[in-house]
Amino acid sequence: MYHYDVFISYERRAEAISKWVRNHFHPRLCELLDGNLDRDVRVFFDGSVRVGGKWPDELRSALRHTRVLVPVCSPKYFYNEWRLAEWASMARREELAGSDRPATLIYPVIYCDSKNFPPYAHERRMRNLTEWNHPYEQFQVSAKYIDFHDEMNGIATEIEELLSAAPAWQPDWPVLTSRPDTPPASRFPRL
């Protein structure tokens, strides 16, 4: 069964994107989806991983049990093996779900610079949020934040439609993963 409605995928090492997701995108998406749905919404993002949890295992499990992937796209997103594995996993699920009207399980939003995205990303319609990509909390008290909130309301409405059309959960949904990182060499000599 599904445990999450949405899995937010983004380049965590990009400080501005990480702050924007935590300060603005994630809270507004949760708030608006929760207001639109007749049940509690569950959104997975990196803050959902438990302390002590094994990162790759938690990601695999969350992705397998999520209805819709929401990638926050930037040029570096498409060079990260983990982000690509998340995208490819959901794209494969779309193929496996089949039917006359294929399921849409990837809802990409543009954080910045879409001209440098790979061709397969340009095949999808994306929601452009570059006008509101201000990472700092002060953005919430600006006049532009009302427009951002309105845009997020439209996103929540569209995602709600995708959630209701998501295929029934399958225990064998494929989850592609990145190769594990090689442990760093010790900086101390062996005794």
Q: Which sequence of strands runs across the widest sheet?
A: 2-1-3-4-5
Rg? 17 Å
Structural class per helix/strand content?
alpha/beta
The percentage of residues in β strands lies in 5-15%
- End-to-end distance, in Å? 50 Å
Sheet of most strands: 5 strands, parallel
Question: Could you give the count of β-strands?
Answer: 5
Q: What is the H/E string?
A: EHEHEHEHEH
Q: State the shape.
A: globular
Spans of 5+ residues with little confidence (pLDDT < 50)? none
Helix content: 25-40%
What is the overall pLDDT average? 88
With helices defined by DSSP (H or I, 4 residues minimum), what is the helix count?
Answer: 5
What does this structure look like?
Residues 2-152 form the TIR domain. The protein has helices at residues 15-36, 55-64, 81-97, 119-122, 144-165; strands spanning 4-10, 43-44, 66-73, 109-110, 127-128. The chain is α/β, with parallel strands linked by helices and 191 residues long. The protein has a 5-stranded parallel sheet, with helices on both faces. Strand 4, helix 4 and strand 5 form a beta-alpha-beta unit. Helix 1 crosses helix 5. The radius of gyration is 17 Å and the shape is globular. The mean pLDDT is 88.
Please name the defining characteristics of this protein.
191 residues, alpha/beta, 5 strands, 39% helix, globular
